[in-house]
From TrEMBL, chain A:
GO biological process, one term: siderophore-iron import into cell
Pfam family of the protein (one): FecCD
Gene3D superfamilies: ABC transporter involved in vitamin B12 uptake, BtuC
Protein name: Iron ABC transporter
Chief location bin: membrane
Gene Ontology CC: one annotated term: plasma membrane
Subcellular location(s) of the protein: Cell membrane
Region (Disordered): 322-342
Membrane-protein topology: Multi-pass membrane protein
Length: 342, 352
């Protein structure tokens, strides 16, 4: 399949072009190189506003997509997304709490707070679920833990005054507006840790999805592997949430797309492609977020939630053969891939 | 709630009859109501008693009659509605995880109410429109789930998955509406989590006829629903029009949820967990369990509201904060989450 990389690249180029050209002021495509190298008004806007936003969208999407795939494979459930195991809400709580309580924080600490919140959310889920004993229990407890964390967030929002409230609300939906190179540079130290870990854990993921018993038979210590996968997912999600907020449902849609478009591939290829599709999803969703209601910006997370969930549901439905009674949402159902068995 | 099998020959322990249990619950409800009436700051228990017996100073009288009584009654009505709606949903869909929160009914009702408020069609001065909008939204959510579930309505796990997704979409829509009309954000946030703050007689006079009508309808459905719980085939064999019974139950559930949501907002986990409690206490005969679940819901929400109020007072005194109220929804959500964890642990420990 040579067509898919080409299509992804074309989509990427078009979306990046749109991201750089459209907006106020409009920069015509043929003037992009000149504007990027020049230091006029257009050059400043391009290099200081639109370019970091583009990079951030790509990085955030790639992280969320990859984290989504890691979670879904490790828990063997297409609904195991960052939003539903308490990681996203924990990180959001970590960022929102100092804002409401009017504690002044240096910017460098914010990712640490998000990481702390994400770890607390994730560990709460795991501890309550008996450290990865059964995937179904992890998911159900995750729903409970994230509901409780959401309640904490809402209590904070009740306390906040009107201005803080709008800020927090926007942040909670996931927004890329007014992000600069500082935010981007806050992201890469985490990626330096996470990417090698991802590469190392990819083969284990492929074994985990065979099921606990088979994986154990092949010499994988299942609980430890699952814990490790969750830890990597937390390291991927927390810095993104710290910078952009929990951009919803990217971790749900990107792995679905990756699997759907490459049914015959293995976990390693899916990991790569979920990162690619995640980056593309966030980049594409950021364009209506910037432009649809201009000059007012809408949070990108609202668009990913509105468009991502129906798309994901459609993919979930199509993948199942008609008339099949096996629930694909069930944690015990093996993932049947059309044409996947050779 | 699985009970350990008793060895044959062991004597059955003395069980309370259903009537005694209902009486006990009524007593509990009275206790919760008393707690809620006396929990506030200025008139204590003695002051409240004075007001109720006819004497008492005007300020105390105003606080008790105009503020505390309607608040207590509204939380009672909303709790009962949510408990009933949850049990109806779980029985009709044969799914122990089908609370109004995760079948799109509550998120839909919130979306309807928020949209109506945002468009200026309804406001706190015209609560009728809020109920209507919440109802429309609730039906929208339930209808979406119905469409999505398609032919697999009998598959509880699949329905639960679609319910969660429908709820996510509706919550996203609500967020967008709130972004377009940000002026409402302050008043709506309280309400996204569920609060009984500042409910007055108007809310109560709007809630009770609605809740009463639909609760009566629900109780009339008790016998067919009990059959439905046994499975579609058995129900059909017993001569029940399965589709019609299920539809009627769903309509009742949506209407009850919409009424409760428009009165107190989206109280978390009440509709999901109260039915489990009801079934554990009263057993699977819905003719008893439906009123029982309503009572348990009322007790839970009243008690949670009293606890939330005293918690906020403690926090204000302890932290020396000027304004701090714990919405009752935060409390029910946290307690509900812990309960859900217990349920999940039991499932994880059991086989499969």
């Amino acid at each position: 399949m040579i067509r898919q990389p080409a299509a992804a690249t074309a989509l990427l180029v078009v979306a990046a072009g749109v991201a750089l050209c459209l907006g106020t002021p409009y920069v015509a495509p043929h003037r992009l190189p000149a504007a990027l190298s020049g230091d006029g008004l257009e050059g400043v806007i391009l290099t200081e506003l639109r370019l970091p936003r583009l990079v951030l969208a790509l990085a955030a999407g790639a992280c969320l997509g990859a984290a989504g795939l890691v979670l879904q494979e490790a828990l063997r459930n297409p609904l195991a997304v960052p939003e539903m195991i308490g990681v996203s809400s924990g990180a959001a709580l970590g960022v929102a709490a100092p804002l409401v309580l009017a504690l002044s924080m240096p910017a460098a600490v914010v990712p640490l707070l998000a990481l702390g919140g994400a770890v607390i959310g994730g560990v709460l889920t795991l501890a309550a679920a008996g450290f990865g004993r059964s995937p179904a229990a992890v998911l159900l407890t995750g729903a409970a833990v994230s509901a409780a964390l959401q309640a904490g967030l809402l209590v904070l929002m009740v306390l906040a005054d009107q201005l803080d409230l709008q800020l927090i609300y926007r942040y909670l939906l996931g927004s890329l507006s007014a992000r600069t190179w500082d935010d981007v540079s806050g992201l890469w130290p985490w990626l330096v840790v996470a990417v090698p870990a991802l590469v190392l854990c990819a083969p284990v993921l492929g074994v985990l999805r065979l099921g606990d018993d088979d994986a154990r038979a092949m010499g994988v210590r299942v609980r430890r592997a699952r814990l490790g996968a969750l830890a990597i997912a937390i390291v991927l999600i927390a810095p993104v949430v710290a910078v952009c907020g929990p951009v919803a449902w990217v971790g749900f849609l990107a792995p679905q797309l990756a699997r759907r478009l490459r049914p015959a591939a293995d976990a390693r290829a899916w990991l790569l492609w979920s990162a690619v599709w995640g980056a593309l999803i966030v980049l594409c969703a950021d364009q209506p977020a910037r432009l649809a209601l201009a000059p007012v910006e809408t949070p990108v997370g609202a668009w990913t939630a509105l468009l991502g969930v129906p798309a994901g549901v459609a993919l979930l439905r199509v993948r199942r053969p008609a008339g099949a009674t096996r629930p694909s949402g069930g944690s015990h159902s093996p993932r049947t891939v059309p044409g996947g068995d050779r | 709630m699985a009970r350990a099998p008793r060895p044959t020959g062991a004597p059955e322990p003395a069980r309370l009859g259903a009537a005694a249990k209902l009486g006990l619950l009524l007593g509990l409800l009275a206790v919760a109501l008393c707690a809620q009436m006396t929990v506030g700051r200025s008139p204590g228990a003695a002051g409240v008693w004075e007001v109720l017996t006819g004497s008492g100073e005007p300020t105390a009288r105003h606080i008790v009659v105009q503020l505390r009584m309607p608040r207590a009654l509204v939380s009672l009505g909303a709790g009962a509605s949510l408990g009933l709606a949850g049990l109806l949903l779980q029985s009709a869909l044969r799914n122990p995880l089908a609370g109004p929160e995760v079948t799109g009914v509550t998120p839909g009702a919130v979306l309807g109410a928020v949209t109506a408020t945002g468009l200026g069609l309804a406001g706190w001065e015209s609560p009728t429109a809020v109920v209507v909008a919440a109802c429309a939204g609730g039906f929208l959510g339930a209808g979406l789930l119905w469409l999505l579930a398609g032919r697999e309505k009998g598959d509880p796990e699949q329905t639960a998955v679609y319910g969660v997704l429908v709820s996510a979409v509706l919550a996203g829509l609500t967020a967008v509406v709130l972004l377009v009309a940000p002026g409402e954000l302050g008043s709506v946030v309280q309400w996204l989590i569920g609060s009984t703050e500042g409910r007055v007689w108007e809310h109560w006079s709007l809630l009770w006829p609605w809740a009463l009508v639909w609760a009566a309808a629900a109780c009339a459905l008790a016998a067919p629903l009990t059959l439905l719980r046994c499975g579609d085939d058995q129900a059909t064999a017993a001569g029940l029009a399965v589709g019609r019974a299920r539809g009627a139950a769903l309509v009742c559930a949506v209407a009850l949820t919409a009424g409760a949501v428009s009165a107190v907002g989206a109280l978390g986990f009440v509709g999901l967990l109260v039915p489990h409690l009801g079934l554990a206490v009263f057993g699977a005969d819905l003719r008893v369990t439906l009123p029982g679940a309503a009572l348990i819901g009322a007790v839970v929400v009243c008690g949670a509201d009293a606890a939330a109020q005293s918690l906020s007072r403690l926090l204000v005194e302890g932290l020396d904060a000027g304004r701090l109220t714990v919405p009752v929804g935060a409390l029910t959500t946290c307690v509900g989450a812990v309960l859900l964890l217990v349920v999940a642990r039991r499932q994880g420990a059991g086989p499969g």
